[in-house]
Amino acid sequence: MKFVLLLSLIGFCWAQYDPHTSDGRTAIVHLFEWRWVDIAKECERYLGPKGFGGVQVSPPNENVVVNNPSRPWWERYQPISYKICTRSGNEDEFRDMVTRCNNVGVRIYVDAVINHMCGSGNPAGTSSTCGSYLNPNNREFPAVPYSAWDFNDNKCNGEINNYNDAYQVRNCRLSGLLDLALEKDYVRTKVADYMNHLIDIGVAGFRLDAAKHMWPGDIKAVLDKLHNLNTKWFSQGSRPFIFQEVIDLGGEAIKGSEYFGNGRVTEFKFGAKLGTVIRKWNGEKMSYLKNWGEGWGMVPSDRALVFVDNHDNQRGHGAGGSSILTFWDARMYKMAVGFMLAHPYGFTRVMSSYRWNRNFQNGKDQNDWIGPPNNNGVTKEVTINPDTTCGNDWVCEHRWRQIRNMVAFRNVVNGQPFANWWDNNSNQVAFGRGNRGFIVFNNDDWALSETLQTGLPAGTYCDVISGDKVDGNCTGLRVNVGSDGKAHFSISNSAEDPFIAIHADSKL
Ligand code: QV4
Ligand code: CA
């Protein structure tokens, strides 16, 4: 009996739902389109010291080079081979990054594009990031190698038109992308070899791109072929962390729950609904967030990978729609990310973006394709300004004080229960996490002035939204918690950031 219990505990902790972060780190960051050399440096100089658990990296395998439009970000979702060779860097640079990040306690998660190869319309030739030959028309990808047998043309040789038909969604082409026949052991083996190569290098897990477009059983067959994680950094028997990109906002044939057996799923309702609430659209109010999470129709917390925005829906691709908050709406965005990081629901991912020139025509951004900051297609370095923000048009939301400090907050309150909820029936809300942290929001059009139960021990705390605790002093607001756990909060509705957060480590 005891043995069975122990086994099931091990099963949970070592299994595909566990991100395998080090020392109770609770959030990862998507460094979208960053080069491996910059990520290695960022792990050492920032992510490690600030308590980030890991990095989701852009697809590391060879992709098609698209010149019209000029080098869009989305060319990286059109694989040509499984060579580690992209504009983010080569295999040596990738290995160096994984080693250096792991050594400072920061994990690497790879965006694995395994549902398809490139679009059917790309010309034959060597327009690829490593110069490998491709002939999409003949289904030839000799650098893998794949040939006509390895694609789903015999099941479907056209587009997905109907998302109410699971067969189409999984066997037809997503945006013209040549759909792999993942029921074939040969294809499964090629994909697993690629993923095992990365596991052996030391990555901690994978985002499975377009998982909705793959049969859950085919994914499972691939996962069953994967190695355990590298014991240089992970305990013996650790399974790769898996989170599957399944966009399920309801109303389609395919449900996120069909994928729970394989790992976590991306919960797209999270960002779509939180954006609606913070924008106060459709009569939504922050007070309704009292039962946020499963109570809002989302997947179980231990199956959810959550985020406010991602690389698709921050520019109108993927799902979520106009309610999605991004760095372009900085004030509301910080509140949303703050709420996500304070709330116990799900495993959290922070977005880190680059700026591009938006050009809206009839509500659609004509420049939604623009790739990372570059010189003639060569991705620019992520430079760091004296004030610790990033240069060269890298936004680095993860370095914004409010966001960086809320990642630390989440680590400090890890495992603590959701507690001491308060609201004014409108858009002023507060809640704590056990006796370790407390956060207050004012998203109403009038001031907040309230004495609230924080659950924290008596003392003076530094608000980590308006400032930092530095050498025992506070550069922002101070909050005095009495011996009864209560504190008075005042938040003007015109404050630069209309929220306050305090936690055990911000005590002065
Ligand atoms: C064009 C035509 C097609 C035609 C095809 C012929 O539009 O009608 O059949 O040529 O070759 C790009 C272009 C698209 C082009 C296609 C193929 O935008 O116009 O088709 O390439 O050349 C990203 C982008 C896509 C992009 C794709 C590949 O968002 O625009 O397509 O990369 O470069 C659904 C899915 C979900 C998906 C989401 C975007 O359920 O899985 O759409 N999200 C993931 C990634 C996303 C990525 C893909 C999946 C595909 O997060 O970034 O798409 O890997 O909701
Ligand atoms: Ca498919």
From TrEMBL:
Reactions performed catalytically: Endohydrolysis of (1->4)-alpha-D-glucosidic linkages in polysaccharides containing three or more (1->4)-alpha-linked D-glucose units
Domain of life of the organism encoding this protein: Eukaryota
Xref: SUPFAM superfamilies: (Trans)glycosidases, Glycosyl hydrolase domain
InterPro entries membership: A-amylase/branching_C (IPR006048), A-amylase_C (IPR031319), Alpha_amylase (IPR006046), GH (IPR017853), GH13_cat_dom (IPR006047), Glyco_hydro_b (IPR013780)
GO terms, biological process: carbohydrate metabolic process
Signal peptide: 1-15
Any one GO MF annotation of this record: metal ion binding
UniProt domain Alpha-amylase C-terminal: residue ranges: 419-507
SMART domains linked: Aamy, Aamy_C
Similarity comment: Belongs to the glycosyl hydrolase 13 family.
Identification of the protein by name: Alpha-amylase
Lineage of source species: Eukaryota, Metazoa, Chordata, Craniata, Vertebrata
Gene encoding the protein: LOC110291010
